[in-house]
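Encode chain A's predicted structure.
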Amino acid sequence: MALSSYVEAVIDKKDWYITNLSNVAACLWQQMEDVSWVGFYLITDKNDIEKELILGPFQGKVACTHIAIGKGVCGVSAAEDKTLIVPDVSKFAGYIACDSEARSEIVVPLRDASGKVIGVLDIDSNTEGRFTEPNDESRDLEECARLISEIIPAKL
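Encoded structure for chain A:
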């Protein structure tokens, strides 16, 4: 079964978005093989001028709580509004090592109804090469991100 089918099944549009994000993180954590961290970073206004990614619901080890837009895999994904697949995080310039055991990562932007990036879905693995070029799994995670985006309020 596609990951997006599981995600669609756990989202309840009547529930608070944090509840939904928590269940989606747990669902992906349980359904995906060889992942060490699954979670969300959401864009928030730091001081009405600067925006940053703030840690949201996740499964895995303690994580970085603030990531500047344009920094690390998550920040670059948000800034460039594109899915980033990093087979070897040690080769990603500016990589932020929240977990020293992480070896590969995929980050998928979350967008509001107008297409503006409002956060990212971040998934790590302790296996180098776990995430590679775009494939069925990465396209399915992009569909998951679309479903997730529908339940996040426009202004956090």
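Residues 17-31 form the longest helix (15 residues).
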